[in-house]
Amino acid sequence: MFKKLTTQDMVYAAIFAALISVLSYISIPIPFSPVPVTGQSLAVMLAGAILTTRQAGLSMGIFLLLGAIGIPVFSQGRGGIGVFMGPSGGYLIGYLVGAIVISLIIQDKKSYLHIGLANIIGGILVVHLLGIIWLNIITDMGLQKSLMAGSLPFIPGDLLKATLATIISVPIIKRLKGSL
């Protein structure tokens, strides 16, 4: 029924949980949005592209759990369950769903095009959708304003991150082939 977690699953998940935690410190507040620009989405895309679905989900789950218990792994050095109740809570949950979606889309198809499309769908569309919905609920600013403040300004940077994640992940996947 459920496959046992291997040491390799746990190690890879821990590495990517650490990566997203470190990249959360790349955080640039922007005046027109309650959501900062961060390096986290790059780590989400890398995890989804490089790891198995189980490892990707586990890595994002570990990251979210660490943040929920108060370790300052979220953007701007924040931590605690209250962050989930703030404007960026939907994006955090989106990281978990997005990494899993990326991994599910990729499966055994490891071309630049396939991985790039998976990063755009899971790493941008899924994350932004969940983030916008939550931002609207929390701030009551309306879906259109939530889209304007919580998604549109971030799309160019996220497309750059999707490109970087694709370029970085393909050679790593080829190198690790068979060990994941």
UniProtKB/TrEMBL annotation:
Pfam families linked to this entry: BioY (PF02632)
Protein keywords: Cell membrane, Membrane, Transmembrane, Transmembrane helix, Transport
InterPro entries: BioY
UniProt key word Cell membrane: yes
UniProt GO cellular component terms: plasma membrane
Highest taxon in the source lineage: Bacteria
TM spans (from-to): 12-32, 44-69, 81-106, 112-138
Subcellular localization: Cell membrane
Topological relation to the membrane, as annotated: Multi-pass membrane protein
MF terms in GO: biotin transmembrane transporter activity
Family: Belongs to the BioY family.
The protein's name in its UniProt record: Biotin transporter
Source organism (scientific name): Halobacteroides halobius (strain ATCC 35273 / DSM 5150 / MD-1)
